Amino acid sequence: MSQPDWDKNTVAQVIESLKDKPGAMLPILHGIQDALGYIPKGSVPLIANALNVSRAEVHGVITFYHYFRDTPPGKHTIHVCRAESCQSMNGSDLEAHAKAKLGIDYHETTADGAFSLEPVYCLGNCGCSPAISVDGEVHGRVSPERFDEILDEVRAQA
Amino acid sequence: MSIKVFIPRDSSALSLGAEKTAKAIAAEAAKRGFDIELVRNGSRGLFYLEPLVEVETAKGRVAYGPVQPKDVSGLFDADFLNGGSHPLNLGLTEEIEYLKKQERLTNARVGITDPVNLEDYLAHDGYKGLANALKLTPAEIVKQVTDSGLRGRGGAAFPTGIKWNTVLNAQGEQKYIVCNADEGDSGTFSDRMIMEDDPFVLVEGMTIAGLAVGATQGYIYLRVEYPHAHKNLNTAIAAAEQAGYLGANICGSGKAFNLEVRLGAGAYVCGEETSLLESLEGKRGLVRYKPPLPAIKGLFGKPTVINNVISLASVPIILDKGGEYYKNFGMGRSRGTLPIQLAGNIKRPGLIEKAFGITLRELLYDYGGGSATGRPIKAVQVGGPLGSFVPESQFDTPLDYEAFAANWAVLGHGGVVVFDDTVNMATMARYAMEFCAIESCGKCTPCRIGSTRGVEVMDKIINNQDRAKNIALLRDLSDVMLNSSLCALGGMTPYPVLSALNHFPGDFGVE
User: Fold this and answer.
1) What class has domain B425-508?
2) For residue A21, which of A97, A136, B394, B415 sits 20 to 30 Å off, Cα-Cα?
3) What is the nearest CA distance from A146 to chain B, expressed in angstroms?
4) Is the ipTM of this complex over 0.90?
């Protein structure tokens, strides 16, 4: 499958600005994902070249970490917490509701490109379980009804 | 003169609508012509009352909560800016029982100050520890920490002073201080609260650690799930640099210490110290063999102090008031205080910093008020996803590393997750294996393969397939994981699994 066009200049700039840091790999990967929303497969040789490591090494790092992705995300990314504290407050029901409401499973994006759904193992909001985050903003005590409200609020912001 | 109104910017408060509340109060004040100064403080950690709004009065700060935008107009009608009575009025914040009974040493400023305001930090005893440390030799600083009895708060409870001493005596022109801020355990949020709500205390603690062992560079390895902590840490670091508390010449002492935040990328195993170091070096987070210890060969092969956020954030008060002061809190070999995080299915969740020795029962009922659902509490999981499930019969156990170990449980990072009687413990045991399979770094076989086989065996037990035989197999597998995994991920996953089985055999279909 061909990758969508990606912004090679931005990737090159990120690499150039960070490559001399000690242990530059993760800062570079974050920099690219912050700028583009994902790490295009085509950027792997550029990173490998700049850091003097093999492409396999770069690929290994990208795929080791759950947070890094090599496909473009939806406009908004929703993380639903699956960890114990959220489970104790019916988090499993919330997970099922989120999947049904969006019509997708984890690691998928809605057909309209609006939402990506990802699992997360703790948002550090365990005093307000169950929790989700939308584009990095955490929401607590999320009932299925509240989940729907949050979706509406996010859509309205669009 | 303007009236000070405090509305938290802590992510848990924000997750319950604090931002909307703040906007509503600002708008209403403008509409009514009141001159208020809105301070965005940290959270007091009383999450059942968030968003908690406080007003500064002559008698002290008066609390109102939980305050939603719809309550705002009524609060103004009730003259809340002068502490007026209202159904949401909780009285003086410091007098709220939940807070009043605590012993806040590490979290002394949390919820009180504006987290990123250096002036505010200094006005509340900030940088007193560093001032003392600058008058001491490295060995004297280490001695204060050793005397305090502080043990690693990340979970392993290794004496911090001994670790520092090893690095102090290690040879190397470059040494590092690394803060493990990869707080991935479910039920824990005290690292997050320190970093969001009082980031300077961590910066100060790391600076003191640098002086103590002769390290000039520090890294905070922060989990990516904490964007607010990231922002506040960077703001605090910039302010500290600006004011000469970080950089080439700390407070004119001629000593250098620099600090940088690095983000993780959603790997739980990177909370394991050697995996974290690999990640900081830009590699996959594969666990290293020990020895060599990180204190001898750590980051980039150099002597490295690696400590948890709470350990490092406890150092400033130890250097301010002395090791003896800190040591006088606690019990047995567990000295000082522990920021306990009460979470999950609990009526009054929150941050409770107490001296070691409080019992689970006091926490769950006196502080927590029982379960959120009102149903009986069946079990609590203490110490994160690798901690044992503790049944009601053990609720009188005091929070003490050794007392928990005697019950084959762990205190870990002080997270307590509460479950009511609707929980099925076989499901939780299966989840523990599943989590291990998802998060295993893959380096050692017992963890990588054992966890996957563990999920399969749990499925068979749950589906009543050769149950007796499979329970024997589960125990056998757990034994292998316990005794031959490379790190705590594989090595401790059997804690939740076997504790669930041993305390709640009925849920596994065992009579």
Assistant:
1) mainly alpha
2) A136
3) 11
4) yes
Of A57, A87, A124, the CB nearest to B183: A124
A-B C-beta contacts closer than 8 Å = 152
Between the alpha carbon of residue B232 and those of residues A134, B81, B95, B228, B239, the distances in Å are: 20, 28, 29, 6, 10
CA neighbor of B295 nearest in space, from B412, B215, B205: B215
d(CA A32, CA A81): 25
Higher-scoring residue by pLDDT: A4, A143? A143
CB-CB contact of B276 with B285 (8 Å): yes
Q: For domain B330-420, which CATH number applies: 3.40.50.2020, 1.10.520.10, 3.30.465.10, 3.10.20.600?
A: 3.10.20.600
Q: Under CATH, domain B3-100 is a member of which superfamily?
A: Glutaredoxin (3.40.30.10)
- Domains in chain A, ordered, with CATH? 8-64 (no CATH), 76-157 (3.40.30.10)
SS (H, E, C) B167-184: HHHCCCCCCEEEEEECCC
Q: What's the rounded mean pLDDT across residues B4-8?
A: 98
Chain B contact for A135 (CB, 8 A cutoff): no
Compute CA distances B373 → A4, B83, B213, B376, whole Å.
Answer: 48, 33, 49, 9
Q: How far is CA B139 from CA B22, B145, B269, B335, B494, in A?
A: 48, 10, 33, 21, 40
Three-state DSSP state, B222: strand
Fold of B118-327: Rossmann fold (3.40.50)
Fill in the amino acid letter for B146.
T
| B450 in reach of chain A (CB within 8 A) | no
The DSSP bridge pattern shows strands A137-139 and B330-331 to be unpaired
Q: Look up residue B52 and give its DSSP letter.
A: P
Going from the C-alpha of A117 to that of each of A38, A78, A102, A110, B119, the distances in angstroms are 15, 5, 8, 8, 42
Give the span between the Cα atoms of A99 and A36, in whole angstroms. 25
Beta bridge partners of B176: B217, B304
Q: How far is B350 from chain A (nearest CA, A)?
A: 6
Is residue B19 pLDDT above 80, yes or no?
yes
Residue B369 burial class via C-beta count within 10 angstroms: exposed 0-12, middle 13-18, buried 19 and up: middle
Give the largest Cα separation in chain A, rounded.
51
Q: What distance in Å separates the CA atoms of residue B206 and residue B310, rounded to the nearest whole number? A: 11
pLDDT tens digits, one per residue of B38-57: 999 999 999 999 999 999 99
Where are chain B's structural domains? 3-100, 118-327, 330-420, 425-508
pLDDT for B451-471, tens place per residue?
999 999 999 999 999 999 999
Residue B316, pLDDT above cutoff 70: yes
A22 touches chain B (CB under 8 A): yes
The answer to whether residue B367 scores a pLDDT higher than 80 is yes
What would the mean pLDDT of B419-440 be, rounded to a whole number? Answer: 98
At residue A2 the predicted structure's pLDDT band, cuts being 50, 70 and 90, is low
